[in-house]
Amino acid sequence: MEGFSNTLRFLVGDDIVGCPSEISAFIRAAVRDLKALVAYNNYRHYPVGYAASDNGSTHGITQYLACGNSSTAVDFLGINNRGWCEVDDYETSGYRAMISTYSQYPVPTFLTAYGCLSSKSASTERFSEIVYIYGGNMTTVMPRLLGVW
Description:
The chain is of the alpha/beta class. Helices cover about 30% and strands about 15% of the residues. α2 (about 60-65) links the parallel β2 (about 50-55) and β3 (about 75-80). α1 (about 20-40) packs parallel to α2 (about 60-65). The model has no long low-confidence stretch (mean pLDDT about 80).
């Protein structure tokens, strides 16, 4: 890992599907093990996080992943929000609800995926959400750091 100076962070998982109460323990164990490996080898600090879908059912998991001992808790949370379709805006896309949900989150939170997951608009992505992502409503909570688009 030390040979890659362009590595900024590690994701231990991205939208892992299954029973949240069972999967969250495995995600937390992966965070713990990766942090222990980095410490054992005296590597520079790499933040370790998880990317969750913003579908309403993962809020409990994300709270669990960020709580408690810093050696097992995530350092950041990535949010995959693929709800911006066609003529949406800050209100109708669900971005306002997302900001409200994560405004008090205990670790840095940012978008790791955005756009639209709709069969109708998959081939005509216009990225009209960029104005809102970099606008004042979003950047007060989420820093201007994007992972995947």
